[in-house]
User: Which sequence fits this backbone?
């Protein structure tokens, strides 16, 4: 079970994942609630890696039907998604 419970902690962890996946081109401090993840270098190839990191870091198992491209259009949507999954885990 994950210890990342607050929205801030979830956001910080997700920002770290995104920074790693983009090899530093997406600096955590520049990722805002309305940041489009596709605009910072997330594409279909590293979306899979992002999902795997989310599962690992938050102790979640995500079903394919839980995921949609719309989820990755705004950072806030991704944070909300993870927060909701953790609340029901």
Assistant:
């Amino acid at each position: 079970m994950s210890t990342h419970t607050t929205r801030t902690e979830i956001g910080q962890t997700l920002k770290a994942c995104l920074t790693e996946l983009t090899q530093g081109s997406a600096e955590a401090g520049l990722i805002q609630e309305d940041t489009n993840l596709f605009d910072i270098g997330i594409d279909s190839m590293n979306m899979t890696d992002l999902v795997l990191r989310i599962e690992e870091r938050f102790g979640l198992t995500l079903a394919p039907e839980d995921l949609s491209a719309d989820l990755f259009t705004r950072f806030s949507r991704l944070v909300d998604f993870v927060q909701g999954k953790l609340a029901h885990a």
